[in-house]
Write a structure and sequence with these properties.
binds flavin-adenine dinucleotide, flavoprotein, 3 domains, flavin adenine dinucleotide binding, 8-stranded mixed beta sheet, Butyryl-CoA Dehydrogenase, subunit A, domain 2, AcylCo_DH-like_C, globular, Butyryl-CoA Dehydrogenase, subunit A, domain 3, alpha+beta
Amino acid sequence: MDLDFSPKLVALKATVDNVIEHHIAPLASRVDQEALWPAHSMKALAEAGLMGLQVPVAQGGHGQGLLALAVMTEAISKACPSSALCFGMHCVGTAVIAAKATPYQQEHYLQAIAAGKHLTTLALSESGSGAHFYVPATRIDMNGQFFTVTGVKQFVTNGGQADSYVLSTVASGEESESGDFNCLIVDGQAEGLQWQAPWNGFGMRGNSSCALKLDGVQVPMSNLLGEPGDQVWYVFEVVAPFFLMAMAGTYLGIAQAALDAAGEQLRARHYEHSGETLREIETLQTRYASMWIALEKTRSLVREAARRGDRGDPDALPFILACKADAGETAVMLANEAMTLCGGAAYRENSRVAQMLRDARASHVMSPTTDLLKLWTGRCLLGLPLL
Ligand SMILES: Cc1cc2nc3c(=O)[nH]c(=O)nc-3n(C[C@H](O)[C@H](O)[C@H](O)COP(=O)(O)OP(=O)(O)OC[C@H]3O[C@@H](n4cnc5c(N)ncnc54)[C@H](O)[C@@H]3O)c2cc1C
């Protein structure tokens, strides 16, 4: 446990560890094998009072920031990465709603989230702009008391399961420029939401990622988040830091699980011909040490980024941009190393280590992708505009 955790975070971590042990870990391999959306995990997290992690205290939530998000997603992901992704996207959606919530949005969304009665998620990606999620083509038209929303969102985590979806849109007639969009809350029960065939992922198989077609969906004007013109503020102040921290925690959890799996195998496996265990072999000791060093370096970066972000340090941005890229690379590298160190036990179809490697690979394609994040980190450090 990090000695600098607040008493509140220590208590939240103990609560989530209990949920993981009794509810999330026991069903983790079924989630992967059956591409099962982890309803059991979301229910248990809700019953433990954890869904309002990012809801302000005034609305009944825990009022936590980036550090808590990274710590909680890491813990969940160590047992079940899909559950961490689903919980993480709920937390990111919550943070976006909370950033400039009106009294109506506080009452209808944040208080329900804090009470564990409402699941939300983020729907930004579109096939037309791919990894460049900040250039949506989904359009809104003003229509009396309503906005009419038309477009198709791709890869919506918690797709078809959430009570609301936080969407990015552009006003009809505007030419969309980078970062130029509005955020809206669309209720899961709204008429005109058409869920497309489920996406059958290589990894993160339980996240219920689906495409969502919005065909003239009417959304009350009260569901607009912030003011028109707030878009860039939302992208860089809320969406990016919360998303990057949720994902950095998720991939850190996979990296820790890979290290643990390798350590267990190195201790347990011994040869009959020599009586030697794998852990007595120098090459493997060295490789295991390299895994541990990479993990601890990544965790230090993630926690440093989270703390700087929570304090509002003016130089937090490059740390925050770098941490998901680094956590993704560390997770892939450690899962790959664990696959080697664990030998034939790991290199069988659907082994636990194989699942780690498949889940870790999602990091490089989930936007902002590793390449985009390194590009932005470099630009930020060199005093250039990110986009
Ligand atoms: C498991 C999973 C869950 C997801 N959940 C969500 C979600 O909840 N909500 C949501 O909105 N989206 C979600 N996404 C979508 C994700 O964030 C990306 O938008 C999507 O994966 C991009 O896929 P694509 O094939 O269109 O990528 P493409 O845009 O085709 O990119 C392909 C590759 O090219 C690279 N590339 C493109 N342009 C550049 C450039 N200028 N410089 C360097 N490299 C570049 C990208 O980095 C990427 O590696 C999810 C994706 C996955 C895999």
